[in-house]
Amino acid sequence: MRAFLVERYGREARLRAGEVPDPEVGANDVLIRVRAASINPLDRMIRDGEMKTILPYKVPFILGNDLAGVVIAVGRAVTRFAVGDEVYARPDKDRIGTFAELIAVHQDDVAIKPSTLTMEEAASLPLVALTSWQVLVERAHLQPGQKVLIHAGSGGLGTIAIQLAKHLGAHVATTTSTANVDLVKSLGADVVVDYRKQAFETVLHDYDLVLDSLGGETLSKSLDVLKPGGEVISVAGPPDAAFGRELGANPVVRLVMSALSFRIRRRARRRRVTYSFLFMKAGGDQLRELTPLVDAGTIRPVVDTVFPFDATREALEYVEAGRAKAGKVVVRMT
User: Which residues, by range, are in coiled-coil regions (predicted)?
Assistant: First the structure.
């Protein structure tokens, strides 16, 4: 099968198109013919080696973390799916590789594709929809009337998180550029801070939760908008010891993670708020919770551009260069 591979780590490394053996199908696996896959910032981070401590993939490996496609074979223990099912998934972190014609995924990580979406739209959702669910529902237990700030509201994660937070009854603020103010308002944002004109930390106050996808100074300033007892959950900031324990890392790695997040955790404690890091997990059950919201129109995907599969490398470079205007970039199989 054709696939796009990472042959060496590094910022200067580029994906290589090549022929690789078809995947082996385990007893609990479904073999999926990929119809579309989407680009995520995580792809660049993995390729550049920024995630090697957490995700030590042995090169060469196939890149890609989102897919929609059709089941073409099932393992002997599979009970959820049959050949011909249209599905979508974010494969487990140990089994990535959606920039390929075929992929074998554990049945627990797969869900039937929303019937109202195209393959390209469905492929844009799994990673960002699961991240939104795990931050807002599973970790934060966001309640009606609570106030949440979602950074980068026009990005792949932000566009979905805004809609889910509104569905949960929250008051939603977001940051975006001038060009995307109307878009994020249409998704449900109650307060929009144009970061080109305003500093969000001087405008927003007494928030219960911040979903941070930017890290750095944005993460640090986000503590200032929280009320006492509030929390910031970051998918871009430094990992913490709790994540190390969740990952099953050895004590040395957990100590390193704790050291990396020491400053932000200390600053959070001084402000009587909390900081935690979240690395989303694959989950077919959570996708099945989200699917009815998609089919009902409560959550709608935002797709910026669709590239052909042969241009997967160019699609990743397009995202890296910051050329995407809003939502996700998708590659379509031909």
Answer: none
Residue 272 and residue 206 in one domain: yes
Amino acid letter, 86: E
Q: Are 48 and 11 in contact (CB under 8 A)?
A: yes
Residue 30, CA distances (Å) to 35, 87, 154 in order: 15, 10, 33
Contact 96, 43 (CB under 8 A): no
Type of residue at 278 = L
What's the CA gap between 328 and 121, in Å, rounded? 9
The verdict on 110 and 145 lying in the same domain is no
In this prediction, residues 43-48 reach a mean pLDDT of 95
Identify the residue whose tokens are 């075929």: 102
Identify the burial level of 295 via C-beta atoms within 10 angstroms of its C-beta, where 0-12 means exposed, 13-18 middle and 19 or more buried. Answer: middle
Residue-wise DSSP of 59-126? SSEE----EEEEEEEE-TT--S--TT-EEEE---GGG---SBSEEEEEGGGEEEPPTTS-HHHHHTSH
Residues 221 and 149 in one domain: yes
Q: For residue range 29-38, what is the model confidence (pLDDT) as tens digits?
A: 999 999 999 9
Q: Is 87:113 a contact under the CB 8 Å cutoff?
A: yes
Whether residue 293 is contained in a domain is answered as no
For range 98-122, the mean pLDDT? 98
Query: Do the beta carbons of residue 261 and residue 220 sit within 8 Å?
Result: no
Which pLDDT does position 251 carry in this prediction? 83
